[in-house]
Write a structure and sequence with these properties.
The chain has 415 residues and is an all-alpha fold. Helices cover 64% and strands 2% of the residues. It has two domains: 5-315, no CATH class; 316-399, no CATH class. The protein is built from 13 helices and two strands; from the N terminus they run H-H-H-E-E-H-H-H-H-H-H-H-H-H-H. The radius of gyration is 25 Å and the shape is globular. It catalyses: a quinone + NADH + 5 H(+)(in) = a quinol + NAD(+) + 4 H(+)(out).
């Protein structure tokens, strides 16, 4: 039986501690295993072997890396703000741990003679709590860049702040359709509302938008602009040596990826509920079995993130921001209006509701067609401007050098 908000807050202290310790071990060991799994999976996609020296199948490679980073000398650049420099990695890690506490692993089960939900905590505004934790963690990135007193690190931190602001808006809007259909912001009750049909199928546009925003929020390829090696050396973490602080930064990034995967499974993929045809079995969603279904969905979502990393290149920063503000947010707003109209019609059918839904749908379609026409005109004008600039440059080989001017070195001449 699925848990509800009324089932939380009744656990004995011992069971709460057991669930908190399990969550901590799950995420900590998940980071260690996830690094190895990502390296092995990408290596297979690229026809390589991957880690294969430390332990069987290279399983101990991540453990060796963690020990190495923990034992390396901890260097402090002379100009850094030491307090914020040390505090930034912690701010990145702690909210990621806390955000995962609202993810349900399963229904109510018997544990030490007490019936308890397989979820640490739930709130009437649980999803908003997750978004708030993601917003807090970006302070760690910004402080890491600012406290390093390096232009590369500062630019990486500012990029992260702008990116999170842009994609959190679109991500929050992608949840609105789920809230309208589920009638709640509680993660456990949203899972209960997906008994007959997953929201990833029913609300496919919201799911697609969330998947795109998931990469932007977690700063994963192709949206890992805050640490762009090509132009920012290492981004916000440039001045962090390969020590324990760097390990915390890497852990924070992985934990945000885990949180994004857990939220995707919870809100759009039925949570811990068994997929079809396993759901035909009467006991598929009872006892401890749902924990297995959740873990399988979670791993498959993580594999998809790795697949995207191995397949797509990093986008330009202007493309990243244009996608967030000019595409995802307008599409989300139009989709929310359509979903709201459908919900109004289904809950209170009548001529007024139907007319309102038709008007909203026609208005959204008109706005979208207008937006697409204006965008096409701007692209054509931009292309004409670029063509004209290239014609003015002529065949000068060093013309238009940006951002680094051409180097006039003797041994480069004649090549």
């Amino acid at each position: 039986m699925g848990a509800t908000l009324a089932d939380f807050g009744k656990d004995p202290l011992g069971i709460t501690i057991v669930k908190a310790v399990f969550l901590f071990l799950f995420l900590s060991l998940g980071v260690v295993f996830g690094v190895w799994f990502e390296r092995k999976l990408i290596s297979r996609m690229q026809n390589r072997v991957g880690p294969n020296r430390a332990g069987p199948f290279g399983l101990l490679q991540s453990v060796a890396d963690a020990i190495k980073m923990g034992l390396k000398e901890d260097l402090f650049p002379n100009t850094v703000d030491k307090v914020l420099y040390l505090l930034a990695p912690v701010i990145m890690v702690v909210p990621a741990f806390v955000a995962f506490s609202i993810v349900p692993f399963g229904p109510k089960v018997w544990m030490f003679g007490h019936e308890t939900p397989l979820q640490l905590v739930d709130l009437p505004v649980a999803v908003l709590f997750m978004l708030a934790m993601g917003a807090v963690s970006v302070y760690g990135v910004v402080l890491a860049g600012w406290s390093s007193r390096s232009p590369y690190a500062l630019l990486g931190g500012l990029r992260s702040a702008a990116q999170v602001v842009s994609y959190e808006i679109a991500m929050g809007l992608s949840f609105v359709a789920v809230f309208l259909f589920a009638g709640t912001l509680s993660t456990s009750e949203i899972v209960n509302a997906q008994t007959s049909l997953w929201y990833g199928i029913l609300l496919l546009p919201s799911f697609v938008v969330y998947v795109v925003c998931m990469f932007g929020e977690a700063a994963r390829v192709p949206f890992d602009l805050p640490e762009g090696e090509g132009e920012l050396v290492g981004g916000f973490q440039t001045e962090y040596s390969s020590s324990l602080k760097f390990a915390l930064i890497m852990m924070g990034e992985y934990l945000h990826t885990f949180t994004a995967s857990g939220i995707a499974v919870t809100l759009f993929m039925g949570g811990w509920r068994a997929p079809f045809p396993i759901s035909l079995w009467a006991g598929a969603n009872e006892g401890w079995w749902p924990m297995l279904w959740f873990f399988i969905k979670f791993v498959l979502t993580f594999c998809f993130i790795i697949w995207v990393r191995a397949s797509l290149p990093r986008v330009r920063y202007d493309q990243l921001m244009s996608l967030g503000w000019k595409v995802l947010i307008p599409v989300n707003l139009g989709w929310i209006l359509l979903v709201a109209a459908v919900r109004t019609i289904t809950q209170s059918p009548g001529a007024v509701s139907i007319a309102l839904g038709v008007v909203i749908a026609v208005g959204v379609l008109t706005i979208w067609m207008r937006f697409d026409t204006v965008g096409q005109r701007r692209r054509e004008a931009r292309k004409a401007q670029v063509d004209a600039e290239f014609e003015e440059l002529g065949e000068e080989p060093t013309a238009g050098g940006f951002p680094v001017p051409p180097l006039d070195l003797p041994h480069y001449r004649g090549r």
